[in-house]
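Entry 14. Ran structure prediction on the chain below.
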Amino acid sequence: MLGFIGSRDVRPSSIAGSWYPGRREQLQATVDDLMDRAARPLLPGKVVGLVSPHAGYPYSGAIAAHAYAQIRGASYDTVVLLGPDHRGICGAYGISAYKHFQTPLGTVEVDLPLVERLQKRLAIDRIEDEEEHSLEIQLPFLQRALGTFSLLPIMMGYPLMPRVGHTAWKACEMLSNALIEVLADRQNVLVVASTDLSHLYSYHEVVEHDQVFMTLIQELDPQRLADALIAGECQACGGAPVVTMMMTVKARGADKVTVLAYANSGDVTGNRVVGNYTVGYAAIALTATQPLRA
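Output, structure tokens:
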């Protein structure tokens, strides 16, 4: 029997009604319709990792739906959700101080035993993160695709970008190694990296940079992708979460990468004029063709 959930235990949504619909029925219908419209190609093996964008649903929801449509109706006991800290509220890593995340579709339970195990291996800030959107924006899709699951929500504070990226690379390695350890006794795990891609004032430059990102991620070489992000060859505000996800699921048996969908904000609005701020979005699946390694 579930115990009483107090208001102080639940992280309230700050983006429902703005970034995505705020009413349960409307949100459910929106997410389901987006996934209904998304392609579901035959993937090589079990989905163990996803890349999904984190802009508002009118901009990137259709792309995100391509990621989550691949796991619709599947069952995962644990979802590790990795996203960037846009507001600088944590150090290298931050985990919500709340026990549950709330969306109009209900609450999602944070896997506190897993949090405690991870904290024994890494210095992690427990934070009140109500204003950060990169993790929450993924939850309605996960709720509709999977139903019940426990959540390990991790924000990463060090970006993989020019001048500061080498510190971030070490943070990715440390977090991935810790995740591999704490997840060793769990087979049914999905790791999701939340990221948008290039943020530039040129539609064509965004497309060019994002093509580099998508080409490199298909090589399943986290170091090469990290190097390209640090060199400025491509961009991803959640580059560190993506690289960490790649290292983690690769160690657990992931051996194939499929780019499912791509678009940018210029495609959504139709404004491709030079000088217009443009952001790229991609949905990507990482799969394991063989039984997962513990």
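Residues 165-182 form the longest helix (18 residues). Will compare against last week's run tomorrow.
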